[in-house]
Design a protein that fits this description.
Blueprint (H helix, E strand, L loop, with lengths): L4 E2 L2 E2 H34 L6 H4 L2 H15 L7 H4 L8 H18 L1
Antiparallel strand pairs: 1-2
Helix pairs in contact: 1-3
Length: about 110
């Protein structure tokens, strides 16, 4: 059985395309501004950060810079998956922040 088609295009493909468009819009309008805010906070509060935390600043900048280049169409979309440029690259940073947060919270309480 073949899937229903509208104007010669599979309706499932249209649904996937719409979902991808929605994800891209969310990434551009919600996620990227939050990443930019992370950089701003990091930069403004750098003097409070521990040396081990400061080491992650360059990786955060690089991560966001590559996505900015892709969103500005200065790099093609296929670059990110080819170079394995995903949020997973920041997971060590997130884990570090959680460890520092937990340690400091324990010290204060």
């Amino acid at each position: 059985m073949t899937p229903p088609a509208v104007g010669g295009v599979d309706t499932h493909v249209r649904a996937v395309d719409a979902d991808v468009d929605d994800e891209n819009q969310t990434f551009r309008e919600v996620t990227m501004p939050r990443y930019r805010e992370m950089i701003s906070i990091f930069r403004d509060k750098m003097w409070l950060a521990e040396p081990a935390t400061r080491e992650f600043f360059g990786k955060l900048i690089e991560f966001i810079d590559v996505w900015e280049e892709i969103l500005d169409k200065k790099l093609p979309n296929w670059v990110a998956p080819r170079i394995n440029h995903t949020d997973a690259n920041l997971h060590p940073f997130y884990a570090h922040l959680e460890e520092v947060h937990d340690r400091l919270r324990h010290e204060v309480s």
